[in-house]
Amino acid sequence: MYRSPLLDLPGAAEARDADATVDSAGVAWHYGNPLGEQRLVETTTVVVDRSHRQVIRVDGPDAPGFLNNLLSQKLDDVADGFSASALDLDIQGRILHHTDVTRVGDAFYLDLPASQAPTFVDFLRKMVFWSQVEVTETDLGVLTLLGGDVAVPEEVSAVFVRTVEWPGTARRDVVVERARLDVAVDALLAAGAALAGLMAFTAERVRALEPEKDVDLDHKSIPHEVSAWIGRGDRFGAVHLEKGCYRGQETVARVENLGRSPRLLVMLHLDGSAPEAPAPGSALTFNGRTVGRLGTVVHDCDFGPIALGLVKRSALDSGELMAGEVAVSVDPSSIPEDEGEKAGRAAIDRLRGR
Q: Which biological process, per GO, is one annotated for this protein (predicted)?
């Protein structure tokens, strides 16, 4: 199992059992001052070790079309430096894998939690057939910069740097050789960055409504449950609505044109006076009726205990929910605006003379 060299730094602590439900094995959850490390995001650039993620390289003459045919993102004609997210769906449109994608020259780099990597790599390799592509598991690591504008020094020797568009604090991912991870971090610290653990990133991820598949979603989850994953306007998201030819596309098109997802991913505020936080995966209830499920739970330096949750649309304005014995409320700012009348539904209504 991978273990980051940064775990040998003074104060470095791995996630406790209660926090380990998120993808955290092998890197520091914090370096001795978890809430203080989060607070630094407001005033400077922090560097977070996310080198436990698996980075996969796909290259070869057919790589753009190969990935375009398999994933929900349009990748057949993207330029060098393009970055976005992408989903691998099953035939029913349910989410199997969520990956970040970056094109560097003629190669594509895809990174995702290590727990998802074996099945994703196996899927990619099984789909090669006669395509001229090569799928390689690399020994690269991701460092994430949050907040501020500290430049990435040449000494970091980054394979690539990408700016991540998400509804949160400014974020850049710096991908380096794992063997040079400590050298890269030293160079970033010398340039003015500060060190923060994965807990700080997790709090920012929750506030940005960015789910981690294994903890925040379930086997029934479809793309429209995560509003920011649907590409609209200048936002790429993880699903391109103007491409086809990928598994699960029919579900995406049907929900986009005719209806709405029955659940939405939202941010939740938890009662901070409870002696223990509820566990991810706990049922969310209203008047004893299950209306959703709890995902990532983390303590935020401003809001206290917060979480992600998949909640039925009908329960979003029901009032106080419960996760076990803990009171939970939906953050209203995390509920996306109504998308208005669906084009397909309007066309059907016109045909019916309504």
A: methylation
